Amino acid sequence: MEGKVELSKLMKKGKGTLIAGIVVLLMALSSLGIGYFTLNQESEPDLFSTITKADQYGKIDVEGVTLPFAESDDEKVYFVWDEDRMYLANISEEAFKSLRDIYDYTYNEDMDFPGTVTIKGSSVSIPSDLKKLAIEYYNKWFAEDGKKLTTANFNTVFGSFYLDTHTSPAKDNFTITLMVAVVLGFCGICLIITYLNNRRSSKKSLAVFEGNMERLEKELNDSQTSSYKKYKLFLTENYIVTYAGGLKVVSYEDIVWLYPKEVTYRGVTTRTIYVVTNDSKMHTVLTMSLNKKTREETDEIYQAVLIKLPKDALAGYTNENRLKVKELYTKKEK
What we know:
This protein is of the alpha+beta class. Helices cover 41% and strands 25% of the residues. The chain has helices at residues 7-12, 15-39, 93-97, 100-106, 128-141, 154-158, 169-206, 213-220, 292-306, 319-333, and strands at 46-47, 57-62, 64-65, 70-72, 75-81, 86-90, 117-125, 161-164, 226-228, 233-235, 239-242, 248-251, 255-265, 268-277, 282-289, 314-315.
């Protein structure tokens, strides 16, 4: 074994999880800050009459607005117009509040013109079903002298796009940024919670050695102790000591069941060796993806633990062993 093994240093090895959690949380906060800044630095929209493609950010200086002619869920589509032409606009409730005076003016000629109101949003291609509804509404209320709106002349009057005030590049980017921040924040919190749980588990595992840590350290540094650095594992004369995901110490005397389990996912087989102790708790000795070398190494570790077990301990995963352990715990609970 290379160098002296110190428990204090093994305890600190899990701090990488804490540092990673804090870094990821800071990334989440940074993402939120960048997203908020971007939201408040929205670019100037183009006049909607100049829009030539979908997802462009545009604006209409509204002088008139009708009742909605198409509705679904929380979306309502209106005819609006500026000093030059008519447009179709999917207007949110929030945006429509700013148009209330213009709406009233549109249906009340005795009112004074309240002034134009600018609405902003992204351009969306007009689907055929919306176009059909628009044609019916237009021909009922706006067509004059037999000049009916048809699918043939529709684009000449309204263009190929409607304005959607629910969306904008800044809002869309902020939504994506917010989703990233939430995911990063969740991952960061999970990492920190994992560290705290591992830390608590480590302290609990070492509680039995309180005031006598030297005894455990002596075993760790004994020439007969097997060290498996790749697996963050020590097998001493009396204990399994693992520092993968927190420092844990399991006495061979407390083990009632030892078994390996293999899981294959997308062609990759992973082997985990578990021990169940007489307090009904399950402990992970190691987890490793298998190849020829790691299979031999994990076989060696399994056999090394097996020969240390009490004579009445169970080995191998079988339904019979599972039921025996279950029966053992049932008797203890009684």
